[in-house]
Design brief:
about 270 residues, 2 strands, mainly alpha
Length: about 270
């Protein structure tokens, strides 16, 4: 039988939700795994090393003036998502906030905070970590692109391609990665109510693999948001972005509400 620990701190106002999120975020960021997580966002600078060394590993290239800054960021984003290390680490943080707290037999609640608010605060703190990761990844990618990559013939030296269709498609692909990552995180939160860290990570990896493969299977291309990867014009871009966001909202929403229901019904 688990033990509930109540902390007698008044947090009735919505303004104090910020303090709760901040405390959770600070707790997560103070862990050694968080340092590794943020450090991985500097992954683009590995390309600088491979460009200097006489190796074909992680080499990039293309037609003259074909690679824009946005496309380079997408390439970096795609590579890190295929490694799945950032997602594995965020799954670990999910388990730390939910499963490990429950399995340890000691759960901490604030007397004036509902489980729904606590549940939401933990999710916001997790998403804040991933947003910071993506921002660092973007900044490091663009620093590398405009200080070094642009010197090569295949680089255009500008952030956006001169071909609008290329920009639209790249934006869709980037958004697709963001969307399936959000779905995977919500799925991980749902699993963490019952499964250990190892099983949770395994479940997330299997889901990620399926979401990546699904667009390649006939009839399943648009099952997940990353299937929308091309747009001919701006109106087509808006339509497909809307479909992607709607699909993400449905999958994430289902996982969110199932997880919340399980969180409320946990027997301590």
């Amino acid at each position: 039988m688990s033990k509930i620990t109540y902390i007698n701190i008044s947090m009735d106002s919505k303004g104090n939700d910020y303090m709760l999120i901040k405390n959770i975020f600070t707790t997560l960021s103070s862990r050694n795994a968080a340092i590794i997580f943020y450090a991985i966002a500097l992954y683009p600078f590995l390309y600088l090393i491979t460009l200097i060394l006489p190796t074909n590993f992680m080499q990039i290239g293309g037609e003259t003036n074909s690679l824009s800054g946005l496309e380079f960021y997408y390439g970096i984003l795609l590579a890190q998502s295929q490694f799945a290390v950032p997602l594995i680490l965020i799954t670990y943080f999910v388990s730390y906030l939910f499963f490990e707290e429950y399995s340890s037999g000691r759960l901490i609640f604030y007397k004036d905070i509902s489980r729904t608010r606590l549940y939401n605060s933990k999710i916001v703190a997790l998403l804040a970590m991933y947003i910071i990761y993506y921002v660092i990844l973007f900044i490091s990618s663009e620093i590398l692109y405009f200080t070094y990559i642009q010197k090569y013939d295949y680089a255009s030296g500008v952030f956006l391609s001169q071909v609008s269709e290329t920009n639209y498609s790249t934006l869709l692909c980037i958004t697709g990665i963001f969307c399936i990552t959000l779905i995977a995180i919500c799925f991980s939160i749902m699993l963490s109510m019952k499964l250990s860290t190892g099983l949770n990570i395994l479940g997330v990896i299997i889901l990620l693999m399926f979401m990546v493969i699904a667009p390649l299977i006939h009839g399943l291309k648009y099952l997940f948001p990353n299937g929308y990867d091309q747009a001919q014009d701006f109106s087509d871009l808006l339509m497909k972005l809307s479909c992607m966001l709607l699909t993400t909202l449905v999958y994430s929403g289902v996982c969110y509400f199932i997880g919340l229901k399980m969180y409320k019904k946990l027997e301590y």
